[in-house]
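One-letter codes give the sequence; each number marks local geometry. A record appears below:


***
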Amino acid sequence: MGDGCRRKQDRTSIMQNRTNTWFLIGAAYWLLMSHIVAVSAAEGSSGFLIGQAISGGWYDTAQDGAGLTLEILDDDRAVVIWYTYDTNGNQVWILGVGMLDGDRIVIEEARITSGGIFGMDFNPGAIQRNIWGRLELIFSDCNNATLIYDGPPAFGNGTQQLQRLTTIRTLACDGKRQVRLGFTPFPAEPPGPNGEMLLSTYAKISANADIIAHHLDDGIPWPEAASGMSVEGYPGGLQADWNFRRALTPASHKVYVAITPISLARNSLAPYRGEQPDTPLDALGEPWVSARFNDQMVKQAFLNHTINAVEFFRPDYLAIGIEVNLFRQLAVSALWPDYLELHRQTYQALKERYPSLPVFVTMTANELLEGFTAADATVQAQVLADMQDFTDIIGISWYPFLSNFGTGELPADTYQRIDALTDKPIAIAETGYPAQFQRLEVADGVIVDLNGTLEKQDAFMRDLLAAADARNFRFVIQFVARDYDALCDALQCSDFSRIWQDTGLWDQDDAARPALIQWRNLLQRPLAH
């Protein structure tokens, strides 16, 4: 069974498989002790991503008196109007609408109009819009482009070298990017005696990113935090993990830390983070076994823990809830008010203590976008409303291959719809896309075909980065840097844990994938701010 089966699957049963399978991976990670790695800067590749700032007038200096007007729209489309002449010297307008495609705009069916007449005798019904041919614009930078045309026999085909003629006020096209790019240090292989694999991952982050994400989704040290302990009083396994992360975090990078009081299955209170991650609350006994989100001890523990995380990592961005809308979708609805009380009090206390630190929650785009899953649109809209005044950013968890669309083509307005979800700033808090085929039994009797290819991953990354940069998203976090086949083979992961296995920008043999070129093309541009 393929993507069609996955569209019908029970998402609840799949999500609840997270905890046990990711426990093994988390356990392998925390065993490492602190090491320092020397890193070097990566050589950037040249490239250009089209943004709204290239809107304006363009012309070929060898054909002064003709030219074209270009307008980039909010939905990642472009309107092109070419003002030129036919072989008899008559003025001609050739126009069309095309989608943005990295550094180019392709219009497969440009049209030419006729039948109009000036003034009061103008008759819209007389206008004819006939297909003229194909146009393609390829931009090398903000001021230079190549026009490739293929028209009817009277026009033929050819190219023109275009230069910018006019610019739009307030739209500066200086080649700078708006968005930061980063990874989590998720390991690709079991740790060696000296932590070689994680050192390699951190080296990739240093050379291929300018933000690092510490995604601490493995439980909370509840009793220690509740008693007011600092990190030095936390269990040794947690301390080793945090010390390792901090020691290898590149000094030049921004830091994003994500913690959550919600379990990895997104349906209950987070487990205990003791010597090992994701330890069941049963190990603590009462009162923690029966604790509720809005119990005073839980609220105090979570606030103390977030403060400890801020003081330890000194993050530039802090998420205090991960995929909270999925929790609302999967958990008993009665738990949501309790969680909301915890979140709001924590948010307010943190903003009072750290007023300049962006504090926010993340949400799954698949549930927020109507039609991507069977999630109740009314419920999802209410989650956004509930969070509106208690989050500085909307962090988006973005894995479209787990939606009804699978690895098929997404609606053309997908990123426009994501941008329209909120008037808050947006960040892609985690993302990834499979680059090869897998057949997985993700739950009992539920078989899923992930029809990933290099080409599909490349196209996903191109579209995501173009949209994120054009729409001023704060950052994009690619969750898995390198495929983790070796890690799962060693730990005997379940098929569910392999869903994200082949989403790396490097494959299991550490070979760079084409999508990494898209990533580096944007990264090599200087930041606008």
About this structure: The CA atoms of residues 267 and 479 lie 22 Å apart. Residues 335-353 form the longest helix (19 residues). DSSP finds 15 helices and 18 strands in the chain. The two ends are 47 Å apart (CA to CA).
